[in-house]
Design a protein that fits this description.
Layout (H helix, E strand, L loop, with lengths): L5 E4 L1 H25 L8 E5 L1 H5 L3 H11 L3 E4 L2 H9 L6 E3 L9 H5 L3 E4 L2 H13 L4 E8 L7 E2 L3 H4 L1 H4 L4 E7 L12 H18 L6 E5 L1 H6 L7 E2 L23 E6 L2 E5 L4 E2 L5 E2 L4 E6 L16 E4 L2 E6 L7 E4 L11 E7 L7 E2 L1 H8 L3 H6 L6 E4 L1
Parallel strand pairs: 1-21, 2-3, 2-10, 3-4, 4-5, 5-6, 6-7, 6-8, 8-9, 9-10
Antiparallel strand pairs: 1-11, 11-19, 12-15, 13-14, 15-18, 16-17, 16-19, 17-18, 19-20
The chain binds pyridoxal-5'-phosphate.
């Protein structure tokens, strides 16, 4: 049995996006070589698959990205990493998030690479590694101005020596994260870049073996090749979307589409209203299509009066309240809409520009970012892979 509201995850598009990002990095590095500036070697790609691969399904996505050549995969927490190992992923897996002391076993039992972002988590991991008589490779996170996780950039000489002296811990890489990579005019970006480079200098002076560096999410990767360092960490680009408001010439295709079918068509008389709250009232004889997809499937209630769906190749405005399991669209101007007609919520229904809706456009309708649109796709929506 399958519901008619289903997501299609196009793994070939995912692989093509991975290759497009890799070719972009190679091409830019070649241009840098010619111009005698910036990095002349393309960085490796750490493919970010946290949050169930931005809603696409972490297991299948991780396997595809591993096969496509990702050097490493990255997840938010240990549990996500353990799940990928259970599905057979062999590539190194970096855990971005803070480690709570109770769940460290997963790091050892499933060969995950933790990020150490505080003296306390360093001490806990050292103790755990020592108790197991093993050594553990880790990445070190520096907070260069986002003020979230990481060792503060400005007192590393005081905070790092105990960690660097940990007998059972091996530093593989140092990283930071940008707070404003997708805000072109924002000064914090360059400030973070400078602080990261200074921090790496201090870490060298403290006697750490020359270690690898990474910092760039999708937006930073597109924006400034000086922050590529040894690895870049794209997420959104791999799923086929450019972080707004940036533009890019990298040829990407959205990986996820979301479709449903019309289950009922209702004639509404002038003056009658549709749905919870009665907010949409017909000003003319109106035909409404009922679509079995609602906020439980991840469709935001703010789509009411703002968003569209595609039916018969045309845009039908979402009218009336988005309910838990249904939404309604005005199809008065579209001929012969009937039960069973395909509805595209995300994706294409023809080759004209207005026949495509992507997560970036949907996000703009409701005042959020495409990341949230993708991650919120409901758990009851079946993902079909091809
Ligand atoms: C989520 C995340 C990324 C990927 O961000 P995108 O904008 O999707 O490319 C990179 N690094 C860290 C630390 C992250 O948390």
């Amino acid at each position: 049995m399958i519901r008619c509201t289903a997501a299609r995850v196009d793994l070939r598009a995912l692989e093509a996006n991975f290759r497009a990002v890799a070719s972009y990095l190679e091409r830019e590095a070649r241009l840098n070589r010619g111009a005698g500036r910036g990095p002349v070697l393309p960085p490796g790609i750490i493919a970010v698959v946290k949050a169930n691969a931005y809603g696409h399904g972490a297991r299948r996505v991780a396997q595809a990205l591993e096969a496509a050549g990702a050097i490493m995969l990255a997840v938010a927490d240990i549990e996500e990493g353990v799940d990928l190992r259970a599905s057979g992923v062999r590539a190194p897996i970096l855990v971005f998030g803070a480690l709570s002391v109770s769940d460290l076993d997963g790091v050892f039992d499933h060969t995950l690479t933790p990020t150490i972002s505080s003296p306390a988590s360093g001490a806990a991991l050292q103790a755990a590694a020592e108790a197991r008589r093993t050594s553990l490779h880790y990445h070190l996170k520096i907070d260069t101005g986002m003020n979230r996780l990481g060792f503060r950039h400005d007192n590393l000489r005081r905070t790092l020596p105990p960690l660097l002296a940990s007998a059972n811990l091996v530093l593989d890489a140092v990283h930071t994260h940008f707070g404003t990579a997708d805000e072109p005019g924002h000064a914090l970006f360059a400030g973070q870049r400078d602080r990261f480079e200074q921090a790496c200098g201090v870490i060298d002076e403290l006697g750490a073996d020359p270690c690898l560096r990474h910092a760039a999410n999708s937006a930073a990767l597109l924006r400034d090749s000086r922050v590529w360092y040894d690895f870049v960490r794209p997420g959104l680009l791999l799923y086929g979307l450019v972080p707004p408001p940036l533009g890019s010439t990298v040829p990407l295709q959205p990986v996820m589409s979301l479709t449903s079918r019309v289950v009922a068509v209702k004639g509404v008389r002038t003056g009658e209203c549709v749905g919870y709250g009665g907010r949409f009232c017909a000003e003319r004889a109106t035909t409404v299509a009922v679509i079995p997809a609602g906020y439980a499937d991840g469709l935001d209630r703010r789509l009411e009066g703002r968003g569209f769906v595609l039916i018969r190749g045309r845009r039908a405005p979402i009218v009336g309240g988005v309910s838990m399991d249904m939404l309604t669209a005005d199809v008065t101007d579209i001929d012969a809409v009937g039960p069973g007609d395909e509805v595209v919520l995300l994706g294409s229904q023809g080759s004209e520009p207005q026949q495509t809706i992507d997560a970036r456009e949907m996000a703009a309708w409701i005042g959020t970012i495409p990341y949230e649109v993708l991650c919120r796709l409901g758990s009851r929506v079946e993902r079909k892979y091809d």
